[in-house]
Amino acid sequence: MQYKERSSYNLIGLMSGTSLDGLDICYANFQFTENKWSYNVLHTETVTYPEVLLNQLKNAMNLSGLDLFLLDKQVGDFYGKSINQFIEKNQLDKSTIDAIASHGQTIFHQPEKGLTVQIGCGESIAVTTGIKTINDFRKKDVLYGGQGAPLVPIGDLLLFSKNADAFLNIGGFANFSKLQVDGSVLAHDICPANILINYFTRQLGLEYDKDGEIASKGSIDQELLNQLNELDLYYQKQPQSLGWEWIEKEMLPLLLRSTCSIEDKIATVTEHAAIQISNRLN
Question: How far is it, in rounded angstroms, from Cα 84 to Cα 40?
Fold first, then answer.
């Protein structure tokens, strides 16, 4: 089947980051006029993960192959049902929606080995909603030798390059994209951010550090901070992308050996993220 190039598209986009703070759903219209793209966000919603599914996602790296594929199907079903509810709530006409775009939930990410794994079965989304679904965005880029992350530089270039030269995202990992003099875009992860902070807040029974309250009350462990800032990663040639595997290998041993309190560790990793972001943007 052949598709003609068009100047207007209605799309539903899904986003679920490594912070696991919910499924973001966005319905937007994109238009190509006068040789440039523009957009209009029409409806948005964040859907909280059911507790059972959230706990499975937190443990996904430790699942057997079969259980991981079962979780892939469960996540796809949850995405599809959430979209159907979103469509019904906003009284959207499915026939006017061109496609659903879902990158999935990253479980493993090792681009140096040509490997990246996202779950959230695209076929399940398509069958549940009856809408064409585009998914699993990262693999082809990794197979071509890219990092597969961050996903946003082409969007930043096409939609926002007239607003600023660089764009920072602080999610599970902090990453940025920057417009180069030759018109290309440089984009890479900077350092762990919420994924590491949340790791420690959960030990206090909290999903995240709301408004940085815990970090602001904790004391920065200068020795630990220096150890984190001296990791080899921060002296390597860019670009780079990060996954939990790297944190588990390089950062957690330092953090777990430290005898400072959980609150002080949250303050320290928050300061670490601020320093590394500042270093990259300067």
Answer: 21
Give the torsion through C-alpha atoms of 98, 100, 101, 103, to 10 deg.
-160
Burial class (CB in 10 A: 0-12, 13-18, 19+), 71: buried
What backbone phi and psi angles, to 5 degrees, belong to 76?
-60, -40
**Backbone phi and psi for residue 255, each to the nearest 5 degrees, phi listed first:** -70, -40
The rounded Cα 85 to chain-centroid distance in angstroms is: 23
**Overall residue count recorded for the chain in this entry:** 282
Q: For every one of its 282 residues, what pLDDT tens digit does the chain have, with 9 covering 90 and above? A: 344 467 899 999 999 987 788 999 999 999 998 888 889 999 999 999 999 999 999 899 899 999 999 999 999 999 999 999 999 999 999 999 999 999 899 898 888 888 889 999 999 999 999 999 999 888 888 888 877 777 777 777 778 878 888 888 898 899 888 878 887 777 888 999 999 999 999 999 998 999 999 999 999 999 999 999 999 989 887 667 888 889 999 999 999 999 999 999 999 999 999 999 999 887
- Which candidate, 271, 114, 276, 249, places its Cα nearest to that of 188? 276
User: Rounded distance, CA 110 to CA 149, Å?
Assistant: 11
Distances (CA, A) of 126 to 117, 164, 211, 264: 19, 36, 37, 45
